[in-house]
Write a structure and sequence with these properties.
Blueprint (H helix, E strand, L loop, with lengths): L1 H21 L5 H25 L4 H17 L1 H11 L9 H23 L3 E2 L9 E4 L1 H26 L3 H31 L1 E3 H25 L10 H29 L5 H20 L2 H15 L6 H14 L1
Antiparallel strand pairs: 1-2, 2-3
Helix pairs in contact: 1-2, 1-8, 2-3, 2-4, 2-8, 3-5, 4-5, 4-6, 5-6, 6-7, 7-8, 7-10, 8-10, 9-10
Length: about 325
Amino acid sequence: MTGYIALLAAGVGVALAAASLLMSPRRPLQVSFAAGMLALSLESALIYGLLLHSAAPGAQAQWLIALQSAALLTPIPWCLFAFLSGRHADAPIRLPWRLAFTLGGTALVAVAGANLLWPFLALPETSRPFLFAKLTSAGQGGVAIEILGTVAVLYGLEPSLRNSWGSTRWRLKYLALGLAGIFVVRFYLLSQLLLFHALAQDALLIRSVVLLFGEAFISVGLLRSGALRADLSVSRHFVYRSIAVGVSGSYLLLAGTAGWLMNALGIPEAAVWGTLILFVSVMGLSTLALSESLRWRAKRYISTHFYVNKYDYRQQWRTFTARLTAR
């Protein structure tokens, strides 16, 4: 089952890469996006081969080495995409950024090459299908560098979404959430690998399913972005933020309760499905939190039902005074 999900995710990733390259004008942003999707697709294809086409331990080792090396190279195009998505298409790239990209990319390539000579993951002596692999001493440093690359991608994606408003956020929201979800779960799995020194088959299942969910979000974002191109008196902002925090907490509490019930009932792979439930819950919550329409409706509801006056006149006078002062 895991292998076929990985194969499906690989096919969807190739389709998204092709769709971005067919858009015009073709700019570095589209090219870096296509390269990133192809890198994720290659990882999924290697997971498929590892799980379904590697009965012998020697074959498993080769698939595992290829998978780990590909995973180390994946952050390179996505770092470039995250950087370009927050800039004007024709803006020049300054020398410090070029040096940073060159040094970071060179480090990842060097570590991926080292994995070919000194494999980061060791397989147990068995002829059964892949179940788990142990992290070697050299692999600990390699995984730490991969974590840094993953954090760099998230660091680049966050400002693009946080600093966007209105129609720009509407276009970028699903694209950024899909990518952020993929790399947040990637960060979680890498931290678990570094902590417990073992890569289990369940981790590959989580990676494949999360990639498929993330690609669904990215597909919506790609379509939207076109060419990627009472008498109680309280502050309105305080009430709105309190409601948002309350809804967020309730939503996550329900998701956590569902995962706990699955574990208590002894459902197979409860830990895996609990992680996936949490991932889908956070993605859904983030989508709702970033919805301009939902935020406007919540503010209008609060203004209509909690306040006698239509406006917060103190805030309106401050705004009016500021405008006069500017004149």
